[in-house]
Amino acid sequence: MNLRKLAVMTAICLLTVACLFFLSIKPAGSSTEIGESNKITLLFSPLAAINHSAVPGQQFALNVSAYDVKSVHGYRMRIGYDSNLIKCFSVSEGRLFSNFGNTTFLYTIDDTLGEIQASANFTSPEAVATGNGSLIRLTFSILGSGETKIGFQEVSLYDSSGSPLPYVTIDGYFNNKLNVDFAMPIVLSLVTIASVFTFGKVEGKMKSLSDDREFRIQDVVLLVGFMSVMVFLIVFVRQITIILMVMFLFAYSMLLFTFAYVFSKNRWYIGILPPAVFILLYVFVRDSSIWTLYLSNIYGLVFAILITLYLAGLFTWKATAIFGVLLTGMDIVLVLVTGTMVQAAQTAMSLSLPVLVTLPLFPLIATGAGFSMLSLGLGDFFFAGLLGVQTAKRYGKRFALLTVVGMAISFFLFEVLLLNYLRQAFPGTLMIICGWAPLVIGKELAKKKPVTSVAQT
Known about the structure:
2 domains, alpha+beta, Immunoglobulin-like
């Protein structure tokens, strides 16, 4: 094997592993960094109570929790909510103060105004609470269907001398409407369509890099097996995180260099610019909101398209079908059974690597901790793109577009289930293939159906 072929095949393996590690969809939710400042953090637990099946007459409970508590002798707080949607009928003291002494706990409920007032302080003048825990437990009854903020309207925390203590608050949120999301299905469709319509223009150049090599069935089986092993290593061998970061940065940089080099007519000094910019941005701004909210998503979408264009030509139709079945099966096991795929994705996210595309739900859901977001793994975008490209090669672009619509509809319907009932990580590959497979199977059966003719006499 010559040096060029060895380099290309090494790049293919790295890119495949890089884009396919993280295949789980992360359901909508709001996350908060707790304990990162010197202030006490007050929040509701859970932050967002979203349950479409919660009907009038049912109840739900929330805790007012405190984190990073230091020397708190007592508190007073006023909490507001929409009294047309929910009403509070039970208020009790949490467990945090009870661990440090006897307390006086008082509260009032005004369901006309939608307001709760509660206060507590230690009976001993010297007693103080420290640590993390629940201050108040609230129980609500549901009156109708809708959404409401459950928020802190007034708060006072003080130490044993009566001096106020600094704090930050994060409001809670209740929603029992039917929630849907159009943002992620639309973006998934657009990325897949871009891959389908661009592939024909770059297929020749990409195949020349791999010497027209195609994946055999045994290659696909080994690839999926290798991916499973790597996911377990990432989760259980913590020392591999630095290797993971280097591998991803190398794979992404090589991908950017390859496309820039090929399409600049082999000008290496142009080819090195995109990866150089990517590495510099990663090194210097990866801890900023600019990277987290924007650049990471932009690079994730760009990489999803480039990886599809780079690798899709290596698959035959048969290899694609087997790969889809094996990958979906692996994804189901690692996401729903063992959970290791989700843990691996969290490890990569902790390194600020662009392995997920995270978008706000649309229509927007503004909770007390910010907009609810949905994350989809980079591998899911590649998987949808691979299916779209191979379908276009076999049946034409018109039918490929039909399967893209099918994948988007399937994804949307699964999302409705996740947002309103399951609210857990779910295999994105399953959501995608359920929209693609029925159309393709129907097409295959139609092709094989014998055509009968009636002889005329």
